[in-house]
């Protein structure tokens, strides 16, 4: 799956349960929390062409508005499911949290609930270690030093990491409770 970009997986995930046009996909990026992905035709349409070339999606004849509509192939479904189910690493939670959250967002309806719970357990373990390392470095770096903006910005990052970790704990508890 190294040859599939995060943008391409976002497109695949959006097409999992419904064939969509490039315009529909761009609109989703514009109108939802996925807006950090480019809704530019210069990003979306080349990504769609790459996915067609990789055999992960197919283009259907144009819809009544003249738009080409794309749907997943069995290979596309398989790639999505493998991407969703792969284990989290420390590197993932340190450098790729937006991708991690994208994977989590696409889990419902695609993988068993137990997979989502395991994913959050891994997130807690790996992100917890990362947040603890950040907190320790902040405590070392700030001990006995005057307050300055760089230190305050670092503190914001540490507290943001701790808040993300607390969210993961609550989310896992809610999923576990929902299973019962």
What secondary-structure arrangement, pairings included, does this model have?
Elements: H1 6-15, E1 20-21, H2 22-31, H3 41-53, E2 57-60, E3 69-72, H4 74-85, H5 90-95, H6 97-105, H7 113-142, H8 149-179
Antiparallel strand pairs: 1-3, 2-3
Description of the structure:
This protein starts with 5 loop residues before the first helix and ends with a helix. It has a 3-stranded antiparallel sheet with strand order 1-3-2. A hairpin with an 8-residue loop joins strand 2 (57-60) and strand 3 (69-72). It is built from 8 helices and 3 strands, in the order H-E-H-H-E-E-H-H-H-H-H. It is mostly helical. 67% of the residues lie in helices and 6% in strands. Helix 7 packs antiparallel against helix 8. The protein has helices at 6-15, 22-31, 41-53, 74-85, 90-95, 97-105, 113-142, 149-179, and strands at residues 20-21, 57-60, 69-72. The model has no long low-confidence stretch (mean pLDDT 91). The longest helix is centred in the last third of the chain and has 31 residues, at 149-179. It has 2 domains: 6-86, Winged helix-like DNA-binding domain superfamily/Winged helix DNA-binding domain (Arc Repressor Mutant, subunit A), CATH 1.10.10.10; 97-179.
Instruction: Give the quaternary arrangement of the chains.
Output: single chain
User: Helical stretch count?
Assistant: 8
Helix content: 55-70%
Order of helices and strands: HEHHEEHHHHH
The number of distinct β-strands equals 3
Structural class: mainly alpha
Measured by DSSP, the beta-strand proportion falls in: 5-15%
Number of domains: 2
Largest sheet: 3 strands, antiparallel
**End-to-end CA span:** 34 Å
- Enumerate the spans where pLDDT stays under 50 for 5 or more consecutive residues: none
* Rg for CA atoms: 20 Å
Instruction: Give the neighbour order of strands across the main sheet.
Output: 1-3-2
